[in-house]
Amino acid sequence: MKNLIINNVSELLLLFASKEEVALYGCGDVGKLTFCLLDTCGLSWKIKRVYVTNKKENDCFFGREIVSSKCGINDEFVLVSTSEQYHAEIMEELKDKCEISFAFTSEALIAEMRMLEYHRQSGCEIRQVHEQLGNISCRINSFVKTIPLRQLQFSVDITEHCNLNCIGCNHFSPLAENEFLNIERFEKDIKRLSFLAQGDAYRIELMGGEPLLNPDAIKYAIIARENFPNASIAFLSNGLLVKKMPKNFFEDCVKYDISIDLTPYPIELDYVELIDYIKKQGLIRSRFQTGANYRVWRKSFFDLDPREPSSNSADNWLNCIQANNCMNLRNGKLSCVTIQKIKHFINAFPEETKNMYFTPRDFIDIYQIDNVEEIFDFFAKPFAFCKYCKTRETREIQWDVSKKNIDEWV
Description:
This protein is an alpha/beta fold. The protein has helices at residues 9-18, 29-40, 87-93, 107-122, 126-145, 183-197, 217-227, 247-255, 271-280, 313-318, 337-348, 372-379; strands spanning 2-6, 22-25, 47-52, 60-61, 64-68, 77-80, 101-105, 152-157, 201-207, 232-237, 258-262, 296-302, 327-330, 333-335, 364-365, 389-398. Strand 8 (152-157), helix 6 and strand 9 form a beta-alpha-beta unit.
């Protein structure tokens, strides 16, 4: 078993910034401190599940699924977020997990997190706390974002429209016409990517809009599995259609190891119960894709005419959560999901967006390259289109159904 001790907040943030996905072990006081710190720094989305020794019925931790460690641990990296007094006991329990890397929270780190959380909750130094954490996090993330990836992780939008249509949707689904991705083109592109990467990918996400609106949804997943046999493959769904999917859909999901990952929204839908329903169909890997319900979140907006010196593509890219973390495939080209989906916004508001344009630095053609390393190098640099995204200026958004007004995005 490979493990290390984390001694301060900087080490913790650097570690999280370098990981694509993390699981926590422990959901007590230290686990909550750890989550709140990472949430403040915009890194909590990387926490996918939480392990405990003794699981209670219907446990949930900030929207994440709680799993009993006795049922096995399937993650590559686990952060043990407990006091040091429990470390020996936990290490003994996990001693046979030699293929997993573990990190442990030290008492020094816990004391630092308690101090920061105290100031955050007291409000008296909230600005300073956020600035301190933000500066640490930004420096670390800026460094990590410029390091080329080592393994493919990409999404594909198999449906453009949605059955929920959230205000300010980052995929612009409320503005999209009803459209499904051409499955023949999808298969051609997946085969090409598989050839370039020699069949190796970390994760493939089938998205939308709402992917389960596509009547052939499972066919896309099967094609992905046949070309990337070891990848994690998942539908990212709002959950509204899950119980309406036919029996053979779930049977194929089980057969081809496809998960259904839910994004919880503040609607009349019991997401915890829905995860249980999915697992009863045999899909043991399904989970919450994000944390607590999207009631309120912070969002960046567009500058439709960025001709001022402050409109800097590199600076905007370094401050973007999608930077070097968001590959989206469409019609033979890879880019970030915002660039791939912006057509719906431009089509809806042609006069307002007349100054927006693309350059060759915004896409990479998978049929014009020779190896997967060219993809990794491409995504480790800013896109020219980043000049339109005001990533340093965010606003708080209350979840609602979109009215399709331009001020939801500008």
